[in-house]
Amino acid sequence: MKFYSFWRSLAAYRVRIALNLKGVTPDEVIDVNLMKGQQREAAYRAVNPMMALPALLDGDGPILFESLAIIEYLDETHPKPPLLPGDARGRARVRGLAQIVACDSHPLIVPRVREYLEHELKIDEPTRMAWCRHWHVQALAALETHLKSKETGRFCHGDQVTIADICLASQAAGAKFFSVDTAPFPNVVRIAGACQEIDAFARAHPLKQPGAPASV
Ligand SMILES: N[C@@H](CCC(=O)N[C@@H](CS)C(=O)NCC(=O)O)C(=O)O
């Protein structure tokens, strides 16, 4: 198994958590340095034409891409512990929470978007940061509202870790990277804290990866 990753990638962080929860250790972790633009080099473009991390090669392939698709693949191939609830409504809620992060919010603040704002639209650094913080806050506010429902427990959906918690952990790490104030979102903060008490989450944290700085 080959895992294409980078310490700072929040999407790779999501997959790292799932790998840890499932007790799966890739044979090789291939670093694709997003800060040097290596995701756009021919070698990686051949792996993932979207030029985004993560990607996972399991055996002969084909290559797996998009964090949520990879996590569901891992959940299907390694069913214990399950990362989705047993009922259809629960699964829909968990997938919905996960998609707020992975599909609605995170894609707006990734390097390709920030670099387009900078180089093509000539938007200055403070305005780019305001853009990133805006989309973070939108997602945090939506998550916080959903998490007030009775389906929420110790984690996003009851007391078992699900894909929603994996995504929430990545949103919380991203909020720190972009200095977003999370105080208005106490349920998000509480669940992010509960996640970090689990070794599989803590070990996967971006700042614990090779090459990461002590803080950002
Ligand atoms: N929706 C994708 C997001 C993938 C993505 O955009 N990853 C970022 C790092 S977190 C990336 O590699 N970006 C490269 C770029 O924007 O140039 C997923 O969840 O896997």
Provide an overview of this structure.
- A four-stranded mixed beta sheet has the order 2-1-3-4, with helices on one face.
- Helices cover 51% and strands 6% of the residues.
- The chain has nine helices and four strands, in the order E-H-E-H-E-E-H-H-H-H-H-H-H.
- Strand 1 (2-5), helix 1 (10-22) and strand 2 form a beta-alpha-beta unit.
- Glutathione binds at residues 9-11, 34, 39, 51-53, 66-68, 102, 107, 110-112.
Number of helices: 9
Secondary-structure element series? EHEHEEHHHHHHH
Largest sheet features: 4 strands, mixed
Summed over residues and divided by their number, the pLDDT gives a mean of 97
What characteristic shape results from the CA principal axes?
A: globular
Q: In which order are the strands of the major sheet placed?
A: 2-1-3-4
Strand content: 5-15%
The helix fraction, in percent, is 40-55%
Radius of gyration: 17 Å
Number of strands: 4
Unique ligands: glutathione
Structural class: alpha+beta
End-to-end Cα distance: 30 Å
Runs with pLDDT <50, length 5+? none
